[in-house]
Amino acid sequence: MLFHDLQLIEPLLRAVKAQGYTTPTPIQEQAIPHVLEGRDLVGIAQTGTGKTASFALPILQRLSQSQPRAPRAIRVLVLSPTRELASQIAENFNAYGKNLRMRSTVVFGGVGQHPQVDALRRGVEILVATPGRLLDLMEQGFVRLNNVEVFVLDEADRMLDMGFINDVRKIIATLPRERQTLLFSATMPDAIQDLAAHMLKNPVRVEVVPQATTVEKIEQSVYFVDKSNKRALLEHLLSDASTARVLVFTRTKHGANKLVEALLKSGYSADAIHGNKSQGAREKALDSFKRGKTRVLVATDIAARGIDVDNITHVINYELPYEPESYVHRIGRTARAGASGTAFAFCDAEERKLLRDIIKLIRIDINVVTDHPYMSYAAANAPGLTAPPRRQNPQNHAPRNGQGRPQRSSSDRSGSGERRERSAGSGSSGSSYGGQRGNSSSSGEGRGGEGGRNRRRRNGQSSESKSLTTA
Ligand code: AMP
Q: Is this model's pTM higher than 0.70 or not?
């Protein structure tokens, strides 16, 4: 499917093209037609799925095709839990709407309100806001929402987690009843389902493969390694033929280029894909990778957004991302179209905390492969966890037959439990990992039986790691 097939108007198609998007993401394919029709919608999707365009594009189209209810009225309100996300959404509205005459602004707390008030005074059609600051400005009389035509509640579950839900309710109470409402959330805990039931009218529900489910299908392992040994470890893993089509993530363009140079020198077919490369060069690199001519594609997060290649055997996080959500997005490049996949994370001492954040987010334990030639206990024991894994008895982590066995880190497990508890709304603590997962499956997320799936997955991981570490 192409954007053109979604009946988007030409100024939007041009803007999308200028962004370098070629095909709509699944959430865009599913949501855009309904939003264009004016339907209310519940979108179950996480950041990274392209959900912003899935609402921003059709909203812009509808605004451009109708008159405001009143002169200088705020026509669209988007509520977002964090200032970063709010800014990103506003930037996207600007980028997608650049060929339409639509003014937008963003308001959030933690900064002076004057520039925000000035922008509001000049008049905007689209307002993106975090709840606290918006309420402040409303109370001071700077914002009136009585002519809002479309209301978007983004990351509703995070609003709940962050304690904003009452502010959100207060804001909703001031909106006209006659409006289009869109709610996006990665998960649907009971409180969000209740909210949706009250504020949406006959909504369509669209859902992209929930990230958590995708994540569960991916066999994930972590390799603790010193920074200086990462390249050697990568080459060690590449010496195993099972790493046939490998997507490697670095944080920087420079890092991607350097790694590709080194891999080429060692005789591996490799290429880089990042923002400094022209669109043509990126497409060429991607095409070679798709056709199996390039075995290793080294990418940065931004460049990887549109990568949709089947049969990627391994995603390797050569450097862990600063944003844990990026990890989920990265590993989702394997396990496309319901397939399973394998993801390795290289973690050096400095990245220990990043690993903990990832585990908190994905709520699944990642196996630790200790039996590899570059195992770094300095990295494994670096600060960042409440109880770092201890050095194993060498006979345990390097059996005489040379087969590696991934170890579960108990401290990582407790890290994942913290988040699970909060999102499941459970006040209990100290329950076992399995117990926490059990709680969550009764929280209305429809993820029952998860614990069993993970146990099976862990077994699968053992054999995977063996085959790689004996190479
Ligand atoms: P979001 O989930 O809205 O935060 O989007 C994640 C990233 O994907 C953003 O950097 C968008 O610019 C990018 N993106 C959105 N839609 C597409 C698309 N159809 N093709 C490629 N990239 C996209």
A: no
